[in-house]
Amino acid sequence: MKYFIAVTLSILQLSNLLIFSETSYAALAIPITASSAILMDNASGQVLYAKTPFLKRAPASTTKILTALVAMERLSLDQVVTIPPFVTSIEPSKANLIPGERYYVKDLLRATLISSANDAAETLGYYAGGGSRSRFADLMNEKIQSLGGKRSHFIRSSGLPAPNQYSTAYDMTLVMREARRYPFIEETMKIKTTNIASLAGRQIYLKNHNKMLWGSKEGQRQVLGKTGWTRNAKHCFVGVINAYNRSVFVALLGSRKLWKDLARLVDSQFGTSLSGTAPPTLKLWSKKERVIRIQEALKKVKLYDGPSDGKYNSKTRAGIKQFQKAHKLPLTGRVGPRTLRLLKSYF
């Protein structure tokens, strides 16, 4: 019995070591500044890339996706609510809602998801929580736990800083996956600019904070999602990439260069073409130049220590196979389109 327990513990320790090793290598494979990141395939649920995905961090305004989910479960889109007095004390960014004004819930959701209006998010939390923002926080925590999120705790519907408020890239990906069950949320995330109006007719201009949206086109490569930033959280993004008739969920927390990080993750799955239809090629280079580029890329991820001489030797093939193994690709030792999309991050 003691032998069985000892062997079991050894296996568990080895499993933990392997998981740590894979996560560490994945972080090296795509050079990003984010403290935590993940890519998850929609169809299979397979994790395609991960960098410390369970690290607890402040989620900032990416919280608002969860806020929208819970609010839509408790309020109807055409319900009218009156803006409460406390909105004047809410920190920016804001839609500058005025106490006593009346709005449709759907317009407050648009302000929350498009321009990250904290006053709109806190108003939704107040009404969806039955007149209690703390009760709404309880509902948020119950919701994420029901989705399988085990390392999150929310205090404010806006995502503004609060003690003991945190989540992980993995948990936030589960939230985004659930959000796709609500067409209103995804359709709202596609909007670049729009206006909402109070029932009295006062207009408020909204502009989407997602810069990737301006390079997205319906039917082509599309990056939808919610940004976030606070001094402590740094830059954050949670969303979905649609291309090649595929959907891949993405989450980054604690980024110093959000758009560069996000572009690298998107390109790793779909290439650099905005249309998402033209895989990257090496045809512009000679055979020797192609191999040199590959060798130099492998050096950057510490999978090749030979000379960059353009010779497709056994060391080069071994490095390619290790790279493919880390990304769960067929171990061919050749650089096809899928391997190339990942290697191009280092060219």
| Biggest beta sheet attributes | 5 strands, antiparallel
Mean pLDDT: 87
Determine the strand fraction and express it as a percent band: 15-25%
Number of strands: 9
Give the CATH superfamily of the largest domain: DD-peptidase/beta-lactamase superfamily
* Count of spatially separate domains: 3
**CATH-scheme architecture of the largest domain:** 3-Layer(aba) Sandwich
Strand order of the largest sheet: 2-1-9-8-7
CATH class of the largest domain: Alpha Beta
Amount of helix: 40-55%
Secondary structure class reads alpha+beta
Shape from CA axes? elongated
Number of helices: 11
Span between termini: 54 Å
Please give the radius of gyration in angstroms.
23 Å
Q: pLDDT below 50 for ≥5 consecutive residues: which ranges?
A: 1-28, 275-284
